[in-house]
Design brief:
Layout (H helix, E strand, L loop, with lengths): L2 H8 L4 H17 L4 H7 L2 H13 L20 H14 L1 H20 L2 H12 L5 E4 L15 E5 L2 E12 L6 E7 L11 E7 L5 E5 L10 E12 L3 E2 L5 H37 L1 E2 L2 E2 L4 H29 L8 H26 L15 H8 L9 H12 L7
Parallel strand pairs: 1-4
Antiparallel strand pairs: 2-3, 3-7, 4-5, 5-8, 6-7, 9-10
Bound molecules: flavin-adenine dinucleotide (FAD).
Flavin-adenine dinucleotide (FAD) binds next to strand 1, strand 3 and helix 12.
């Protein structure tokens, strides 16, 4: 890539961010590229755990938490964890997603937790010793998060929690879970009915059940069942009734980072499509010279660059520590655009590769486009569906109250 192209791609990034990107490209090439196909073929989480630990050793799990960061960046932040998500997902989605869930968990604690919560439940995440999970979704509650049923009751010095969460990334693997639950149903109209409580996975009454999916092989996700689970009252994050506010703030980081994950997967698909088109000859010339393909490449490149601008803008806004409500529109735009466009790019890449696009790596092709095509699809659903992102954006544009 020429200097000029680099500028276009990265112009919202500081010199420090660009140097950081180079460094992590080296990390992902050395630590993830050699095992990416193994992760896909074996669905073995131990690869993810090993990569995660190495990320801890390299100061990559503390990027959004300046207080705990010990690396060379002067201004670490969500922009860096988003770039990292992008670079990991360019190689393999599963470790990028496991890392993402831990970071979203950490961000919720970082914005609202007291010193004790941070020391006990965030610090071990930043070193790679422990993993985190965020527990919002339930069997009867998806987009309508404020309607959740899982409840927590204070009994002297302990919270007793009952309920069921589903679709939880890192379920069963994460040692630490932030569980959003109802603590006072009477305050629902004011959105003060929910609280966020840390639940370690080794407590009595905590069980998990794994799901299987069409993509992201190697990652773990499933149900978390909370059956009279008891945790100390100090495990509350922020104050009683802060749950909804914490959740909305956490979503900003989550949606921005998911946009980064989408850019990573789409970039990988785009690079493979260009490589294939440059090398495939039909009707006596390379297909890249056929105008239909040539124009498709232009569209894909433009979509990717536009997505980067939206994504890095949202990340920079999160790092500027603006109030959560002031970033919702931009974070929703980043996630909406990135996921929709990345899906189109993966689909176009598959089409450019023809039959090889639908073929598994190692069985008739060296390309991975069928994997990217499967892996990208969930990004239009997790972290809030595209419809919900549009609802957030339109509500902000029209100055209407957000009823989430
Ligand atoms: C792989 C994966 C990982 C996930 N990771 C996590 C996690 O770590 N933690 C967690 O808590 N959750 C997680 N989720 C859950 C995810 O956030 C939800 O799936 C998502 O928010 C949508 O909820 P739902 O699937 O229940 O769909 P629903 O909310 O039931 O929506 C179904 C359909 O109805 C549409 N819809 C809903 N409301 C409206 C409306 N008002 N107007 C118009 N259309 C509407 C939706 O857009 C969608 O198309 C994950 C999900 C998956 C599949």
């Amino acid at each position: 890539m020429s200097m000029n192209e680099n500028y276009q791609k990265d112009f919202l990034l500081s010199d420090e961010d660009k140097k950081f990107r180079k460094e992590i490209q080296d990390f992902v090439e050395k630590k993830i590229r050699p095992v990416a196909d193994e992760i896909e073929n074996t669905d073995d989480f131990s690869y993810i755990r090993k990569i995660y630990k190495q990320m801890g050793e390299e100061n990559l799990l503390s990027l959004p938490f300046k207080k705990y960061y010990k690396g060379w960046l002067k201004n670490p932040g969500v922009i860096n964890s988003t770039l990292l998500a992008e670079e990991i997902c360019r190689i393999s989605a599963a470790p990028g997603i496991a890392f993402g869930a831990s970071m979203f968990y950490g961000k919720a604690l970082y914005v609202a937790g007291n010193e004790q919560v941070l020391e006990n439940y965030l610090k071990p995440i930043t070193t790679g010793e422990k993993m985190g999970a965020i527990c919002i979704t339930e069997p009867s509650v998806g987009s309508d998060t404020a309607n959740m049923q899982t409840n927590a009751v204070l009994d002297k010095d302990e919270w007793i929690i009952n309920g069921k969460k589903r679709f939880i990334t890192n379920a069963g693997e994460a040692e630490l879970n932030i569980v959003y639950c109802v603590t006072d149903p009477e305050l629902k109209a004011k959105r003060r009915h929910m609280s966020a409580i840390i639940v370690p996975k080794d407590v009595k009454g905590f069980r998990t059940k794994q799901y299987k999916f069409m993509g992201r092989r190697g990652f773990r996700n499933g149900e978390i069942i909370l059956d009279d689970v008891r945790v100390p009252k100090e495990n509350l994050v922020g104050n009683i009734g802060d749950g909804h506010k914490i959740l909305m703030t956490q979503f900003n980081t989550e949606r921005t980072t998911i946009a980064g994950q989408c850019i990573g997967i789409a970039t990988a698909a785009f690079e493979e499509a260009k490589d294939f088109a440059r090398n495939r000859t039909q009707f006596g010339e390379k297909i890249v010279q056929k105008q239909a393909i040539y124009l498709k490449i232009a569209e894909m490149a433009t979509k990717l660059d536009a997505t980067r601008l939206l994504c890095y803008r949202a990340a920079k806004m999160v790092d500027a520590e603006l109030p959560g409500r002031k970033i919702m529109r931009e974070a929703a735009m980043a996630k909406l655009h990135a996921s929709e466009v990345a899906k189109e790019i993966c689909d176009d890449a598959l089409q450019i590769l023809g039959g090889e696009g639908w073929t598994k790596t190692g069985y008739g092709t060296k390309y991975h486009v069928e994997r990217y095509y499967r892996d990208i699809r969930i990004h239009l659903i997790g972290g809030g569906t595209s419809t919900i992102q549009k609802y957030v954006i339109a509500s902000k544009e029209l100055n209407l109250p957000l009823r989430l």
